[in-house]
Amino acid sequence: MAVDKESKNQQLSKFTADHKGRKLTTNQGVRVSHTDDSLKAGSRGPTLMEDFHFREKMTHFDHERIPERVVHARGFGAHGFFEVYESMAEYTRAKFLQDPSVKTPTFVRFSTVVGSRGSFDLARDVRGFATKFYTEEGNFDLVGNNIPIFFIQDAIKFPDLVHAIKPEPKSEVPQAAAAHDTFWDFVSSTPETAHMVMWVLSDRGIPRSFRHMEGFGVNTFRFVNARGKARFVKFHWKPKLGTHSLVWDEAQKLNGKDPDFHRRDLWDAIERGDYAEYEFGVQMIEEEDEFKYDFDILDPTKFWPEEKIPVKIIGRMVLNRNVDNFFAETEQVAFHPGHVVPGIDFSNDPLLQGRLFSYLDTQLIRLGGPNFAEIPINRPVVRVHNNQRDGYHRMTIDRGQVAYSPNYLQNNDPQPDTEHGYVHYQEKVDGRKVRERSESFKDFYSQATLFWNSMSEAEKKRIISAFHFEVGNVMDKEVRKRVVETFNNVDGELARQIAIGIGVEPPSSPGGSGVTDSSPAVSIENTVFEAKTRKVAILVENGFDASELKQVRDALHEAGMVTETVGKNQGMLASTDGQELEVDKNHFVTGSIKYDAVYIPGGQESVDNLMKQGYVIHFINEAFKHYKPIGASNEAVELLRGTQVGSLIRTSDEPSNDMGVVTIQNARDMSSFSRELIKAIAAHRHWDRMELTGKISA
Length: 698
Ligand code: HDE
What we know:
The chain has 19 helices and 19 strands.
């Protein structure tokens, strides 16, 4: 098989253009002598038609936009590579899963689903997690989400689902939100959505970052090995940093203060060298075990509990390069679940079957014709040889007389490869043509209850708050009632709690689906906890203690964290002993919502100054309300007393850590304090504060 010698990056670089130091030209390559004025009949006269430079420039501008994706319009991409840990030859013949020494280039696009391209990152929504593997056998696209199941079971319902959740047609309100009548009308009329709604209203709907998200192929695929033996398979991405989320109040505020929070996070992390890393896992079920489970393994509204079907970790992906150009790469990348390589095949999952039509179709309108595979970001790293010709924007100049097969002339006609070519798995299919749902798909609530049972008490509270927000925004009271009745099928107490917040009667009948099991793996409280790359604000003013700050900051950096100094004004500050420090962000630019934790060093003058600033008090209270770790040393401990944190302050010469509030007094050596603070930061959120105030619901 002919494989290009060049890497994906080399291939892309052939198409990149650097304009620095060059002379301006038209698109025809003609040099331009003057570009700031159009050609006019007299300096105050009308513009002339013959001004080809003006017309070309304006025409190009007028045509700059392409249709945004009908779903997943807002996205952000990065380049990386994938490597398998050990050969998977026993399970699949896919070449990129055989040799651990091979690095396969990848491109990932993360996205929200509902909002338009210019919407904000922190919508409560499912996140897309689409990966293109540029393998030596052609492109494999794993077009997944950050939630392992989906709203509906059959692709034919997708337009209905999307119409219901998108802004309402009469007003185009609300943007990037499910919190409106039509979505909840659809949900309460379509019981199969109940399970997915539970996941979206859980913390997973508002990830901390793309780097803290799991990814799932959702649909059931097949692995097929060289002997033709197949197994059902589900794909997983597990973030090395663990799965973590924001809280809703924080997300809403971020959408105003930094609508690009997620894309900025990924961009900055890659630029810093904190590459995003995910392990790749598969769950496999033998063909003969297809009917062994109490759910249908082809039903995309069901996940395969990891406790019953373990996830085998088989490789890892590292995202280590930002794009050169958002439009050329991230906007023009075209994913399709039908882009598979030998060794990976489909199942009869009816959602997947419909997707296999939709993605190719959608690229035709979005990218303007059938040649989108020639756009640099979409090109495979292997050469393409076939008799497909022409169409809008054809780039390839195919040589030869023959563009059909079979032929006698034998002029440049590519031939099938019976040895390495893709062979579809020969599943025996036999059935009447019917429009009906399999009976085995009709249990809509058991796994929704299983998910609910698997949540911690704190997670449950947040799901209920999410219902109060989402359904509380529904104007039609009958729809609100119907939602309560629907979720009564999942859990009676859940439904009762939902009802309380949205002003409708609790359900009349006892609820629940009878399921008592749980699946601990679905709770993100059982994830990896890792302080690395978390972002810490350091609040300072003139007269801070430089030694404390340095010791703590060095320890945080040592643990892989990122810090920013925050003050009233940007510019230089002086410490008690005259050392200089630059303030990175002033109060207008930033806020506690942009950080994972706060630290305030001592120094009487600095602390006195901070105490007088309402902004600082708000900063600390808000971080506290969002369950974030807060550290204060020496004089700064006093500052906390004037905030909501006050009740947790113990005066101690040993570092104390109460519900993520870490303090120390009379200390010069900050090492034990730093260790406690890092521990508190690794824990991410301190949900035990919920019990403390009862009122800090966010
Ligand atoms: Fe998609 N989906 N989808 N989807 N989807 C699209 O294709 C569709 C579904 C997913 O970053 C569209 O190129 C149907 C499940 C991602 O470019 C479109 C159905 C999952 C992305 C489409 C589904 C996904 C898309 C719009 C129901 C998780 C963004 C633009 C049967 C496994 C890819 C485009 C990117 C995008 C159709 C359901 C993931 C219209 C018909 C389930 C991550 O073709």
